[in-house]
Structures are given as C-alpha cells and as structure tokens.
Amino acid sequence: MDIFSIIKLLCGLTFFLFGMKVMSGDLEKLAGGKLEQLLKKFTANPALSMLLGAVITIAVQSSSAVTVMLVGLVNSGIMQFAQTVFVIFGANIGTTLTAWILSLSGLESSAVALQMLKPENFSPLLAFVGVMFAMFSKKEKRRSIGTIFVGFAVLMYGMVFMTQAVSPLAETPGFSDALVKFNNPILGVLIGTVITAAIQSSAASIGILQALSLTGSISYGMAAPIVMGQNIGTCVTSLMSCIGTGAKAKRVAILHFSIKVIGTVICLSVFCAVRAIFAPALLESAVTPWGVAAIHTVFNVATTAILAPLSKLLVRLTERIVKEKSAPDKREHLFNLDERLLNTPSVAVKECDHYVGNMARDARDMLLASFALLGKFDEETARWIRKMEDTCDSYEDDIGSYLVKLSGAALSDADAAETEKMHHAIGNYERLGDHSVNLVEIARDMDKKSIRFSDEAYAELTVVVDALVDILNLTVNCYTGDDSQLAHRVEPLEQVIDDLIETMQFRHNERVQKGECTIELGFILSDILNNFERISDHCSNIAVAVIEAHRRRFDAHSYLNGVKHGNEDFNRIFEEYAGKYYLV
Predict the structure, then answer these.
(1) Of 114, 162, 264, 569, which is most buried with the most CB atoms under 10 A?
(2) Which among 567, 549, 417, 401 has a CA at the least distance from the CA of 489?
(3) φ/ψ bin of 77: left (φ > 0), alpha (ψ from -120 to 50), beta (otherwise)
(4) What is the C-alpha separation between 390 and 388, in angstroms, rounded?
(5) How far apart are CA 501 and CA 531, in angstroms?
(6) pLDDT 10s digits, 492-551
(7) Which residues of the chain form CATH 1.20.58.220?
(8) What is the DSSP secondary-structure string of 208-219?
(9) Distance CA 354, CA 2 (A)
(10) Does domain 344-580 have CATH number 3.30.70.20?
(11) CB 4 within 8 A of CB 168
C-alpha cells in the first residue's frame, strides 16, 4: 500500500463525510417542522419514543446529530431529561440502517439484477436523476430529493474509493501479522473508539471497517470489539456539544455515553466468555460487510433490550453523576433556545415561532388591560403593564438575535418564509407593547386630573375598543394558528376602525365648536385615537406577514393595494364589520 493508496483512502473518506452531510441536511430539510412536532407529541410513550428516535435518526442519518438535538432541546427547556432516554435507544437502533446500506458494496453475483444493487452501479443513475431534479425542478421538495440522491451517490462513491484504497492490503506483507494484535478485545474497543472519535462519524468508521473486511483479513472475532468501540466513539460529538450547557443538557450526553459504555461492558464480557468457553469457528472466519452490519445491529438491539427495562435506574445514575447546582440561576429566561438547534433548522424555526406566539399573547393581554384603565385607573395593573412591556422588549432583542443566526442556516423555502414572518411580527408586537404603555400614561394623567369624557364620547370610545379587541384576537389567533384565511379578515376590520376613528375625530371637533367639550379633553382624545389607529395598523402588518408567508413572498404594499381595490371578499368582510361596529 503506497502513498497514492493513502491519498485515495483520504479522498474516499472525504467524499463519504461530504455526501453524508449533504444527504442528511436535505433529509432534515425535507422533514421540515415534523421533527419538532413528533418530539413533542410522542415522547410520553416509551415505545413511541423509541420508534421516533429510530425514525428521526434514519431521517437525518446520524445518531450523534439526534443526541445533539436532544441536548439543545433539553437545554432550552423544551424537553425534560427523562423524556430523552427512549429516543436515544431508538436512535442507536436507527443508526444501524446506514451500515446495511453500505454493506451492499460487498454483493458478488453475475446476475444483472443483483449487480444493480451494488452502490457503484446504481449510484450513477441516482446522481443523474438527482442532478436533473436539482437543476430543473421548480418545486423545492423535488430539488431536495435531487440533492439527497446526489449526496447518497457521493457517499457511496466515497465507500468505493475507500474499498479500492485498502484492497492492496490483502497482499501487503506484514498486514496479517499486524492484525493479530486486534485479537485482543480491549485493544479492538480502543481502536474503534479512537478512530470514530477522530472523524466524529460512526457511519464513516463502520464504512472503513466494511471496506477492510473486503480484503478477507478481518475476522468476526476482530470486528466485534471494534464495532463496540465505534459505538462508544460516536458519543464524542454529543459530549462536546454539552460543553457550556446546564446540568440537564449535560445529562443527555452522559446518558448516551453511559448506555454505550455499559452495553459494551456487558456485550464484551459475553463475547469473551463465549470465545473462551466455546471457541466457535465463526469468530475465526473472515467477516463480510454484511457481517459488520449484523454485529452493529445485534450490539445496539441487545444493549437496548438489556437496558431499556432499567431506564429509570439509568436516569437516576446519570442524575447522580451530573448534579444540579446548589444555587439556582435567578435570572428569568424568557427566550432560551439553544444554538445547537441551529444544526436542525426546522426544529429551531418551529420553537422560535412558539416564543413569538408567547410574545403575541403577552402584547394582546397588555393592551386589553390598558383599555380597561381608560375607564378606571388602577396602579397595580399599570405596573404590571410596564413590567410586561420590558418583557416584550427582551423578547424582541433575544428572538431577533436568534433569527439573524437562523437566517444563515440552510433553510427550506417554507422555513425561510417563516423566519421572515417572525422578523416582521416581533417588531410589530413590540410596538403594540409600547402603545399599551402610552395608554397607561394617558389613563394615569386623566386619573390625576380627575378628567372624564362625556357619556357620548365614552360610548363612542367603547365601540372602537370593542373593534380593537376583535382585531387583536384575530391577529393573535391567525398568527399562532398560522391561519391565512383568518388573517384576510384583519385588513377589512382595520379599515372599519380607521373609519370609526375618523368619524370620532370629526364629531369631537363639532363638540368643541359648540362648547360641549374642552380643548384639554380634545388633546387627550386625540392621543388615544392616534394610539388606537397605530394599534390597528400593527395588527394589519402582522396579518399581512402571515398571508405573505403562505405566498412565499413579502411585498405588503403590493398586497394591500391589490386587496382594497375591487376585491369582493374584502368588500364583503368590510361590510360585515361596518354593520357590527358603528357609531350611533
């Protein structure tokens, strides 16, 4: 084996890792927000959690990526530590599928149908179809499928290169002698652990072992301990990811590591006992790529079968290893999404949207409370609104910063539209909070000066407030429910509110001219109505963002111009609200 074989091996490993990254990235993008929904829905049931872990691992083609995702979710408070146990068990089983796919490279047959199952034979066809999809398809889903095909083809050709690079080892003098050392199970475990930790991919290290198995120099007895070590080595990624996290997130990584180590201790003990007592001939026979995949699967299934009934004990053990700090963090975390979730952008987008929904409800509640203060001022409510306004400011700063980072991730068109929608929404929700504080100050000023509107003016204000309550509920519900049909009702109601405000201002001017109202009350009423008008404008902006996200384009000016002129649905809804909210 010369220098060129080593270069070819490195080239194959590079292709393998790059193809895996491309394929897993687009598989995750294709899954969209379903990963986040599944994690929330099924983690209460152990069997479903295990199935979910396997499915997500198959989707993203990496158990390490799933564990890192779990670290981020636990660190963000989205999941509880105890919920991750069976997801990790499922992930360990799901990751074995990759080894079975890679084992197809070991097929030997003269039959054309079987020959077409070999990766080097069908990968070019997949790559061709993938390039056609990626270059010429207008649908994002097909483009993602095309990229997955190309990534898979690159991955499989990386496997072919690695196989070709190590094939001369079969005739290399001294290689068989060197392999004798691998008969030591402890050394085999260490070698598997170190190699996998170095390249941070159990799939790649399994692929290297499968390539070496084609030389006929690796026995089952050598391969089994190496595979166990590779399973331990894959934990390095999650252990590194938990640096800087809270105790609960660290427990996820330690739990993953503990499962692999305990499983290796048990399985290696059984392996050594069987070899010493029975010395089965199978252990001395040459392992095949299929055999490597089988060992990988048997190890993970056996570990799960042994340790799953002891899940509660594992949780308690991990909690003893990683203890909570004695002095809890007193800081109130309003927005605590972990940056590790940026590795799975669809999950980060959905959870970010969840926090924007919290911000939306807070802004609405503040405004409803401030409306009530205009009728009867209460200092405690006023202080609560001021505190909540600070909360909204924090939401805008934290979510905005996270969205900037999220925008740089590889997002699907749908997730990119959601991110843009959130950018638009958080600014408008923050401004709604500001208007609630403005109304508090107006109400406080009226209370100090014992100023009260006439019954006629108060009745008119009540009508406008009722319409504002309606538009606020519409806005929050259409955003949190991602309901574009509901969002279409906001703009007609906003136009009705504008007309009501214009009528109130006209009537007030008439009352001033008749001497029925004072100039001071006029200034106060004008301030209230200006805030009311801006509140309805911000509601309109948020609803338009929801609609434009569904249309996958953001051009509010074009939309508003189109919807207000000659639009029968707009006119119908406008007339509906105009009949509901009118000044007597």
Answers:
(1) 162
(2) 567
(3) left
(4) 5
(5) 11
(6) 999 999 999 999 888 877 777 777 667 777 788 889 999 999 999 999 999 999 998 888
(7) 344-580
(8) HHHHHHTTT--B
(9) 56
(10) no
(11) no
